[in-house]
Design a protein that fits this description.
Chain B: It comes from Kitasatospora kifunensis (Streptomyces kifunensis). Chain B: This is Pyruvate dehydrogenase E1 component alpha subunit. Chain B: Pfam families: E1_dh. Chain B: Residues 1-35 are annotated as: Disordered. The structure holds two protein chains of two kinds. By secondary structure, chain A is α/β, with parallel strands linked by helices. Chain A folds into two domains: 8-189, Rossmann fold, CATH 3.40.50; 202-326, Rossmann fold (3-Layer(aba) Sandwich). In chain A, helix 3 packs parallel to helix 4, helix 8 packs across helix 12 and helix 9 (249-259) crosses helix 10 (274-286). The relative contact order of chain A is 0.12. Chain A is built from twelve helices and 14 strands. Chain A has helices spanning 12-26, 50-54, 66-78, 97-104, 107-110, 140-144, 157-169, 219-229, 249-259, 274-286, 310-313, 317-327, and strands at 7-11, 30-34, 59-61, 82-86, 120-125, 150-152, 174-179, 186-190, 202-205, 210-214, 236-240, 243-245, 262-269, 295-299. Chain B is globular, with a radius of gyration of 24 Å. Chain B has two domains: 25-338, Rossmann fold; 345-383. Chain B has a five-stranded parallel β-sheet, sandwiched between helices. A two-stranded antiparallel sheet of chain B has the order 4-5. The complex binds thiamine diphosphate. Thiamine diphosphate sits between chains B (109, 148-150, 177-181, 208, 210-212, 273, 277) and A (35, 64, 66, 88, 92, 95).
């Protein structure tokens, strides 16, 4: 992989930008397309400078039509390119659902392996940035409920780079969910240093009282909760899933078995959400190791609220600690 | 001739069944490919001076509204504002051509048209302020919620107009969208449905040159957006979107036609977005100042004032009165936005369903307990984060 070496401060947005640039330098089949990805560099500037370096054909400003963008990417992939699609915001990916569900997810299967689609669909998702209606959806459950898609979501700057490179290199379609409220989070990292591959969860913090299982935008909240929990005498582990499909049953079960208590945390609505799946899997596989039921801390089952009220919706440290407190009852 | 060539070798025979023949008369679909103008032409004399002065007054008030809203974003009192500065003629005309029983389907940039329908300025801005989604009851002024997902309101307008016609009521729906929105599938499906159903609906496309950063040339290869009507079998009209009288006239004609059973019309208004896409956007990345300046010379307010004065239809007094009204509105907006918004966090659980589900009742109780605990901790519940952010 052609990358620039060395540790330096980078934001998640810069790491994603570097991943796209390096992937395009490394492989001329990598093409970007989406709304405003050219001169503007995307509304979040993730594609900043790429049209200037690679030209308007490889970093294509498309007409404003998500179904058209993704459908076109399918054709490009069928002809050997590796399209990377930008959906401007979570809720604006919905017009492309038909192409995604009926074709992107199923083409390999429909063609008995003849046509795989190496498409990466980047979707900025989630709340916490004061966005108005339709700008803060957490749409992961729609994607994870669609067999044939990989669903990947970084929570650290290093993973933003590593997982995006891996997603672009994947021969299967990847829904790459970017936690938009972490775009400006910074870290001292060597972006070229390898990270764990897609499909592996990473323990961000060890602990013996309980494990918080989380991903994407909720990781920093969980780490903060784990810190706050020290004052209560609780020693919390924090597990970052990094990828929802494939799901790392092995690591999740190993950690849950050794700790015995688990809370799943995500900001999407709870009902029918990813947390429900995780709680079910953990219960099925680790029942005899559990000292308490697996709990979920999630957003409420309501449409995402207006920005001035979103802090009541988003699962925060207190809600997580309340759940952890409940786990202790089972002793 | 190969087997694959289906071109008829002779004129289409007259016995061809109706089902395959043309469904609408091709001739009048796009009668004029140059934009309609009224200001500065002898046509102006045909219009009621009261209407002209009213349009002028509304333009002035609308411009001030845009300025005040933009200032409010700078003060952090509005989360985001997509200004319609430069496009006021379209906004004003959309509001004035509709009757009280007609329906407006606006997009996120169309607050001015919404206010023009009689919605309170504060209520029209809750979405962009961040305190609520739709702050007004759509049924009262027959104004649908400001719509953020592009072009998705267009089929709604068709359905509503169709339903009104089924009920025998003379209601017209007007859907507003931008040039970028015409690329979405929903736009095309709406046009097709409207034409097939002969629905009393008018589509107003404000072609302001850009969809965020993407210029029209990268959006559509058609000779004009009005041409898009032709393939669907409805009339397309091009109008100077900065000429308030022309926009009013063209829209009024389309509304009348729809009401009389003549079916839908697509109107493309050529205008320009003088400000950035929203306060969160940096327009210098994708357009040059010269272009903006050129359009400033064609400002809808300047045009209107100049031509009405020339025609002796506007005097200093009327100009001063409009300015006063504009200042009064701005003062009202400042006062309204200065007050902290009041909301009950538990309202989050209202209106998700007609009746809250047992799960929602449980979650509401959980939040109520959290808020009570917060209050016990001496913290003030229900305060805002005062965040500003991207969007719209
Ligand atoms: C379905 C959908 N995709 C993307 C967006 C994000 N977005 C908001 S405004 C905008 C540009 C719209 O341009 P245009 O239709 O020309 O209207 P204008 O903003 O110029 O009034 C985009 C891409 C959206 N709101 N909805």
């Amino acid at each position: 992989m052609a990358t620039e070496q060395g540790t330096r401060t980078s934001s998640m947005a810069q790491a994603l930008n570097a991943a796209l640039r390096d992937a395009m330098r490394a492989d001329s089949a990598v093409h970007l397309l989406g709304e405003d990805v050219g001169a503007l560099g995307g509304v979040f500037r993730i594609t900043d400078g790429l049209a200037a370096e690679f030209g308007a054909d490889r970093c294509l400003d498309t007409p404003l039509a998500e179904a058209g963008i993704l459908g076109t990417a399918i054709g490009m992939a069928m002809y050997g390119l590796r399209p990377v699609v930008e959906m401007q915001f979570d809720a604006f990916a919905y017009p492309a659902m038909e192409q995604l569900v009926s074709h992107v997810a199923k083409m390999r299967n429909r063609t008995a392996g003849g046509l795989g689609l190496p498409i990466t669909v980047r979707v900025p998702y989630g709340g916490g940035i004061g966005g108005v209606e339709h700008h803060s959806d957490s749409s992961e459950a729609y994607y994870t409920a669609t067999p044939g898609l990989h669903v990947v979501t970084p929570a650290t700057v290093a993973d933003a780079y590593g997982l995006l490179r891996a997603s672009i290199a994947s021969d299967d379609p990847v829904i790459f969910l970017e936690p938009k409220r972490l775009y400006w989070s910074k870290d001292e990292v060597d972006l070229s240093a390898p990270t764990e591959p897609i499909g592996r969860a990473v323990l961000r913090r060890t602990g013996r009282s309980a494990v918080l299982i989380t991903y994407g935008p909720s990781l920093p909240v969980c780490l903060e909760a784990a810190k706050a929990a020290e004052a209560e005498g609780w020693d919390l582990a924090v597990l970052d899933l990094r990828s929802l499909v494939p799901f790392d049953d092995a690591t999740v079960c190993e950690v849950v078995r050794s700790v015995g208590r688990a809370v799943v945390v995500h900001e999407a609505s709870g009902f029918g959400g990813v947390g429900a799946e995780i709680a079910a899997r953990v219960t099925e596989r680790c029942f005899h190791h559990l000292a308490a039921p697996v709990l979920r801390v999630t957003g409420f089952d309501i449409p995402y609220p207006p920005p001035m009220l979103e802090h009541h919706y988003l699962p925060g440290v207190d809600r997580i600690l309340d759940a952890v407190a409940k786990l202790q009852w089972e002793d | 001739m190969t087997v694959l060539d289906h071109r008829p070798t002779a004129p289409v025979p007259s016995w061809l069944p109706d089902a395959t023949g043309p469904r609408s008369d091709p001739a009048p679909l796009l009668p004029d490919t140059s934009p309609v103008r009224v200001l500065g032409t002898p046509e102006l004399a045909k219009y009621d001076p009261e209407l002209l002065r009213d349009l002028y007054r509304r333009l002035v008030v609308g411009r001030r509204y845009n300025q005040q809203a933009t200032t409010l974003t700078k003060q952090g009192r509005l989360a985001v504002y997509p200004s319609s500065t430069g496009q006021e003629a379209c906004e004003v005309a959309a509001a004035t051509v509709l009757g009280a029983d007609d329906w407006l389907f606006p997009s996120y940039r169309d607050t001015l048209a919404v206010v023009g329908r009689g919605v309170d300025p504060l209520a029209a801005l809750t979405l962009l302020r961040g305190s609520a989604h739709t702050g007004y009851d759509p049924r009262i002024t027959r104004t649908a919620p400001l719509c953020t997902p592009l072009a998705t309101q267009a089929p709604h307008a068709v359905g509503l107009a169709h339903a009104a016609r089924l009920r025998g009521e003379p209601v017209v729906a007007l859907a507003m969208l931008g040039d970028g929105g015409t690329s979405e599938g929903d736009f095309h499906e709406a046009l097709n449905f409207a034409a097939v159903l002969n629905a009393p609906v008018v589509f107003l496309v404000q072609n302001n040159g850009y969809a965020i950063s993407v210029p029209l040339t990268k959006q559509s290869a058609a000779p004009s957006l009005a041409h898009k009507a032709v393939g669907y079998g409805m009339p397309g009209r091009l109008v100077d979107g900065n000429d308030a009288v022309a926009v009013h006239a063209v829209l009024a004609e389309a509304v009348d036609r729809a009401r009389a059973g003549g079916g839908p019309t697509l109107v493309e208004a050529l205008t320009y977005r003088l400000e950035a896409h929203t306060n969160a956007d940096d327009a210098t990345r994708y357009r040059v100042p010269d272009e903006v300046e050129a359009w400033r010379a064609h400002d809808p307010l300047v045009l209107m004032e100049r031509h009405l004065r020339e025609a002796g239809l506007l005097d200093d007094e009327a100009v001063a009165r409009a300015a006063e009204e504009a200042e009064a509105l701005a003062a009202t907006m400042r006062a309204q936005f200065h007050a902290e918004p009041q909301f009950d966090p538990l309202s989050l659980f209202q209106h998700v369903y007609a009746e809250p589900t047992p799960q929602l009742r449980e979650q509401a109780a959980q939040l109520a307990a959290e808020l009570a605990a917060e209050q016990m901790d001496g913290q003030t519940a229900g305060q805002t984060d005062g965040q500003t952010g991207a969007g719209a």
